[in-house]
Amino acid sequence: MISTAIALFIGIVVPLATAQPASARACGSVVSGSSYWNWDGTFSTHVVGTNCSTRYGRFVWDTSDHCCVPMWVKVERQLWGSYGWLTTNAQYKKVLWGNFGTHNTATVPSKTWEGDERFHACWGVGDSQPGSWTCGPWVD
User: How far is Cα 63 from Cα 44, in angstroms, rounded to an integer?
Assistant: First the structure.
């Protein structure tokens, strides 16, 4: 009787505890709800899942009427803790003016076992890393 219960536990409960739908982990795609488009549609930012354990920021730059200032993209990861949301990881990429196309940051980890986490992608302008950023919505 006990061996039957153990076999039932291993056969049903263990796979349910370890499996997670790919869509919930944004494996290999733009994370739903993470995109931000600027007012005139010349660029956008997105959080992308490279696999089920990392994320990166994507900056898509189509054109610009403003000359000569580099654009930046960043991706941030935050964890929920006793003091609220805390930024634990961030990656940045500088895109020189006129370098239109798709640009990606390096990855940040996604470790759900560490607790509640969230991500967002942001953009900024400047020769050096911006002091202020415009960010898309937070996503899982």
Answer: 11
Centre a 10 Å sphere on the Cβ of residue 118 and count the other Cβ atoms it contains.
15
Q: Give the span between the Cα atoms of 76 and 55, in whole angstroms.
A: 9
Q: Which two tokens stand for residue 121?
A: 């992608």
Amino acid at 122: C
Whole-prediction pTM: 0.77
Give start and end residues of each alpha helix (H) in the chain.
2-8, 14-18, 22-25
* Predicted confidence (pLDDT) per residue in 32-76, tens digit: 999 999 888 889 999 999 878 999 999 999 886 667 889 999 999
Can you point out the beta strands (E) in the chain? 29-30, 36-37, 43-51, 54-61, 71-81, 84-95, 101-104, 108-109, 117-125, 134-135
Q: What is the CA radius of gyration of the chain?
A: 19
Write out the H or E segment, with its range, that includes residue 50. Answer: strand 43-51
